[in-house]
Design goal:
Blueprint: E1 3-8, H1 14-27, E2 32-36, H2 43-47, H3 53-62, E3 64-67, H4 81-88, E4 93-99, E5 112-118, E6 128-132, E7 135-138, H5 144-160, E8 165-170, H6 178-190, E9 197-202, H7 203-212, E10 219-222, H8 224-237, E11 245-249, E12 254-258, H9 275-287, H10 291-307, H11 321-334
Parallel strand pairs: 1-2, 1-3, 3-12, 5-10, 8-9, 8-10
Antiparallel strand pairs: 4-5, 4-11, 6-7, 11-12
Helix pairs in contact: 1-9, 1-11, 5-6, 7-8, 9-10, 10-11
């Protein structure tokens, strides 16, 4: 039976990179029934919102979406579609693996981290106000409920991906109540997973150790803002945002997307590098338990990277999107599926 997946092309380079990812995923032999749904600024005139109800309903029904980037106006206009999606679908976990890809020049050869970021609370609760002129208060919300589900998610992810250890990252030496609660919950949840090691680490020391000895860590789980920063840091360790796929996961739905934006400067020119979205598609296959197909996608990306003949412009080459996808498909089709 085919998996039903909602494809949201988005805008800018979105249609180009989502088409590329779709072609590559289809070539793995996994049957996917794609349902294309719109989102973005151009939808406002049509239906009054950048995130049409039909798109939201389709994702709720399929439970899975592969999404291209969407342009968000800065300081005015509509609210980010990404934030709206996270809230409406309660996508509470942001899952970002950061693994060294051979052929990509980086400072370390052996980074293999998973960053799990809480996606719904912390300083992103939007509770900010001016107490008196010149004094602003922002509230950082940490709840037992959100802490429990993100920590359980991290331990389950560790198990699923064959990892040894989960580290809860915090600042409980200063934020004694909020991060204290997070750690108390972590301690309790860790007891449910006796097969996974558990430890804790303070955020500032973790940041230093990550850039000196990234191999010291395995799965790292933390609240929203810390996770926002550390997940970008981890991307930097393996070659930048263009290398790292990401997944936003909730109880009923999961949305897979690249971390980069809509790149309006190169949109429609056939120059976009679709690799990050292709890898996000690979994550989706892994999420579905289709590990062989996911390996094929990853191996093909690594092969083309190592070979170095088909690099897109952002990586100093002159291949266009189509040529790059062609190279990926050539390798993918040469891989024999073990029986
Ligand atoms: P951006 O990531 O779109 O572009 C930054 C630079 O990287 C540009 O020079 C662009 O050409 C290049 N670039 C990005 N992705 C590329 C790719 N796949 N291949 C080749 N080159 C690539 O970031 P920027 O310019 O800050 O944002 C543009 C728009 O995208 C904004 O409206 C922003 O709000 C939106 N955005 C949307 C996201 C999403 O929907 N998930 C995430 C980040 C930004
Ligand atoms: Mg960020």
């Amino acid at each position: 039976m085919a998996y039903k997946v909602t494809l949201v092309p988005g805008d800018g380079i979105g249609p180009e990179v989502t088409q590329a990812a779709r072609t590559v995923l289809d070539a793995t032999g996994i049957a996917i029934d794609w349902e294309v749904k719109p989102a973005g600024g151009d939808q406002i005139e049509r239906c009054g919102s950048p995130l049409p109800e039909e798109t939201l309903a389709a994702i709720k029904e399929s439970g899975l979406a592969l999404k291209g980037p969407i342009t968000t106006p800065v300081g005015r206009g509509f609210r980010s579609v990404n934030v709206a999606l996270r809230k409406s679908l309660d996508l509470f976990a942001n899952f970002r693996p950061a693994k060294t890809i051979p052929g990509v020049p980086t400072r370390f050869d052996n980074v293999n981290l998973i960053i799990v970021r809480e996606n719904t609370e912390g300083l992103y609760s939007g509770l900010e106000h001016e107490v008196i002129p010149g004094v602003i208060e922002s509230q950082r919300i940490i709840t037992r409920h959100a802490s429990e589900r993100i920590l359980r998610f991290a331990f389950e992810a560790a198990r699923k991906h064959g990892r040894q250890r989960v580290t809860a990252v915090h600042k409980a030496n200063i934020l004694k109540l909020s991060d204290g609660l997070f750690l108390e919950v972590a301690e309790g949840i860790s007891k449910e997973f006796p097969d996974i090691e558990y430890d804790t680490a303070i955020i500032d020391a973790t940041a230093m150790r990550l850039v000196m000895n990234p191999e010291d860590y395995d799965v790292l789980v933390m609240e929203n803002l810390l996770g926002d920063i550390i997940s970008d840091l981890a991307s930097g360790l393996v070659g930048g945002l263009g290398m790292t796929p990401s997944a936003n996961i909730g109880t009923h739905c999961a949305v897979f997307e690249a971390v980069h934006g809509s790149a309006p400067d190169i949109a429609g020119k056939g120059l976009a590098n679709p690799r990050a979205l292709i890898l996000s598609g690979g994550l989706m296959l892994r999420h579905l338990g289709e590990n062989q197909a996911a390996d094929k996608v990853r191996d093909s990306v690594i092969h083309v990277m190592k070979e170095g003949k088909h690099r897109t412009r952002d990586l100093g080459g002159n291949a266009g999107t189509e040529e790059y996808v062609e190279a990926i498909l050539n390798h993918l089709n040469s891989l024999v599926t073990p029986s």
